[in-house]
């Protein structure tokens, strides 16, 4: 077998059985590339989470087809052990064949408690190493060392000096290769035995990327202060003032290190510092870490363009490749829109057209494989509440708060983040991104957040947001909370955040808080100055302090605080407005929805720039016609800022966890 997927795919031959029940306790079938291959073979995947929800989807979508004598290849995935399949309803058991898969079968000589913690995207490297040379039976530590070496490329015997250690940590954290906690602890244990690293704060900077970047940030002024005589660095440079004690001078100027540091400053993971009378060559690599203005902003923008052009994901990329890329694209977009660089805005638009063509093609093939991924690192917005459940279970006080900023795009988040950092230096922001639901409409995507479900499960309210509070409460009641433990409020964005918050929640009693900040959406729908105008007005709103105050107070009350958005937005130009009267159920500027595929196709014939989006995770009789790139269903010559389509700026949205710096 060339791939671990082949061992599973061998059991999936089309037209053998209309229904297959699979015991999949390790989430193997929902791995992104395996799910894609199954769908290519004609298999539909559906998870059995809740009996009532499953029965609704099963009866409405599949039983009707079977009753007509038509065939489907339906796979029902259960997070159960093989023996537990027999607890399913009799009508399912009688109609289905039964299969089971688990990690222990794929990796028989490795410790199961260790390998089950691995992200499924990492199994390719592990299986390839095993295929080349089957290891002897291993215990926990031997399995951890094997994974560190063959999956993450970390061989502790080769980490013999400061340069090697720093390079290893940069490769892991810059490349977003998140080590499971058990592997981080193993690496810390091994490296602490090396006397060369006794001054490194290993326990803080190995498991936590934000702590590692903080460590680099406070060592950067110390490095610059040693680069020339008379250079005055406006930062605390004594060891006494350092948050992370120990090693002071890092080898930033080593040839294997400086390329990482340069990119970290370019992408906003490190912040340039102010220096007086520091003479540096125009071509010097350290310039990206020194705060100047005007000319150097243009240099950073130009270099980010080059970096992004080289890093455009390919057609076979994973969703995580796109979210990583989107964060860099957002950083560049924020710089361009917040500066007075019209020539760069033109270049940004041209590059955006190119990448959105690639992104739209990728979505057609891959979007359906995201829906059932595990919620550990949410790939889609409806995974977010289940991620919050894990936070609640892991935290001492068991309280979570979710702030949904209606319409906040990833590039606008980059602008907001800078203001939050200035207003509250104690704020730690763990930044990631996730996929919105398509069409990227508020009533579709925001309800999926608060319900924790695909839109398929709320057909009666899909055109309204009025059921959000009820859906949010129902989700948490399903997790064992009472109605009194849950709070929801929308329409926020102005006024005294602390006073408003105290009118919504009871600190210590309210366990789950859902808040909708709709200020940015209001700005967007009145915007006539394009994306640059959006960034300008968002900056003005943020400087008022509402969002900073809201986050800080929630943290003060002991909540695990998350922020996301239901969709982003994009500046676009009118290509013509359909005049179909009441045929369309939703008549947006970037998306229109029809009750049948035939009606949609009739309209689509006159608008070749639009896409007939497949009903992935959507209710029956809900057929979207969406736009991509910078096109919109408005009159020719009109420019708007809108949402609903499939551009990366609308689909990939911020997902941020906030914490307080304790020292």
From TrEMBL:
Any Pfam family: PglZ
SUPFAM superfamilies, alphabetized: Alkaline phosphatase-like
NCBIfam families in alphabetical order: BREX_PglZ_3
This protein's name: Pglz domain
